[in-house]
Amino acid sequence: MDANGELISGPPPRLGYFDSSCCEAGAIALFTKQGILLMYNASNSSKHGDRVFAPGFSSVGQALFDPDDRPTRELARQEDPSYTQNPRGKGQV
Q1: Domain span at residue 38?
Q2: What is the pTM of this model?
């Protein structure tokens, strides 16, 4: 929540990446020495996604946020997914 008690949205989708269609909170956020680590569910866009992955490809990503600005300032985000679905495309993350 922000200073006004309003909900803060998670990391936005990124054009050209594995998380180009959808980013939604997955597991709980972890407080680390480097910042707040958020693991999130991601989906690849058919039009604006990473061409390495199929359209609709589901995966898990990680983003790190500033611990002093909870968590409105993103410090880093993975370039590639940390976990992916079955390579044959069956099932979900």
Answers
A1: 22-83
A2: 0.80
